[in-house]
Amino acid sequence: MNSPNITDIQPVHFNWAFSEEIATITLNRPERKNPLTFESYAELRDTFHKLQWIDEVKAIVITGEGENFCSGGDVHEIIGPLTKMDMKELLNFTRMTGDLVKAMRKCPQPIIAAIDGICAGAGAILAMASDLRYGTPESSVGFLFARVGLAGCDMGACAMLPRIIGQGRAAELLYTGRMMTSDECLNWGFYNAIAQPNDVLGTAMTQAKRLAKGPSFAHAMTKKMLQQEWSMGIDEAIESEAQAQAICMQTRDFERAYHAFIGKKKPAFKGN
């Protein structure tokens, strides 16, 4: 079976663009604050899975059209139908949504979320599963599952959110379903920075371009180790990093950086 290429990605349930080695995913139902449907969940999962194998893409930006990021699962197209499903159907759905997060975390490219307005429910999960997050003063983030009678343990939230903002803060948000303000998002480490609404996508793209010009093989290794080391002890993590770094030292990018340094030039990384 041939590996996918960039032309194989032709989504119909969200907007897609590829330029300057950066893929941009835009959720595009602004009239309803960009909610997800069964189809868009699956298409996002499949897209991130394909991106694992596409070397031309060096960084990924995910955002929402209009003045919102994502309001979560569509009340009429997802929440309503879920109330009529049996256990097997429900488990198929929850595993599918979890597979989206798994695909994002397995994706070797850095994923950057540009967040304005509402970022709630599954939208908050998409932001959480990204590597970097940029918000606006008007944005707010909420894990709303308790509000609809569900547990906060959805799509990896109980594992990942405490690692980003701390156990106590995560517990409060997951128990109450309340929205985090943009100041809380920044002060607690959920946001990397805040930009004005007209600038937030540009801020994310600037970071994406910076990362795309970097050593993409090494970036992929950093992302892999950030995830793998969650379940490691310190000694095991140090040994794993020793092996990972030794592998990176065999790349031509490492040689390029050395020769650029001694030549007082900026290295031109090529990802090999």
Strand and helix map with partners:
Layout: E1 15-19, E2 22-27, H1 38-51, E3 59-64, H2 75-82, H3 87-106, E4 111-114, E5 118-120, H4 122-129, E6 132-135, E7 140-142, H5 157-165, H6 167-176, E8 179-181, H7 182-187, E9 193-194, H8 200-212, H9 216-228, H10 234-248, H11 252-262
Parallel strand pairs: 2-3, 3-4, 4-6, 5-7, 6-9
Antiparallel strand pairs: 1-2, 7-8
Structural overview:
The chain is 47% helix and 13% strand. The chain is an alpha/beta fold and 272 residues long. Strands 1-2-3-4-6-9 form a 6-stranded mixed sheet, with helices on both faces. A 3-stranded mixed sheet has the order 5-7-8. A hairpin with a 2-residue loop joins strand 1 and strand 2 (22-27). The protein is globular and about 65 Å long. It starts with 14 loop residues before the first strand and ends in a 10-residue tail after the last helix.
Order of SSEs: EEHEHHEEHEEHHEHEHHHH
Q: Which percent bin holds the helix content? A: 40-55%
The CATH first-level class of the largest domain comes to: Alpha Beta
Rg for CA atoms: 19 Å
User: Which fold name corresponds to the CATH topology of the largest domain?
Assistant: 2-enoyl-CoA Hydratase, Chain A, domain 1
Number of strands: 9
Given the C-alpha coordinates, what overall shape results?
A: globular
The tally of helices reads 11
Q: Specify the biggest β-sheet.
A: 6 strands, mixed
Query: What is the second-level CATH architecture of the largest domain?
Result: Alpha-Beta Complex
- Count of the domains: 2
- Fourth-tier CATH superfamily name of the largest domain: 2-enoyl-CoA Hydratase, Chain A, domain 1
**Widest sheet: strand order?**
1-2-3-4-6-9
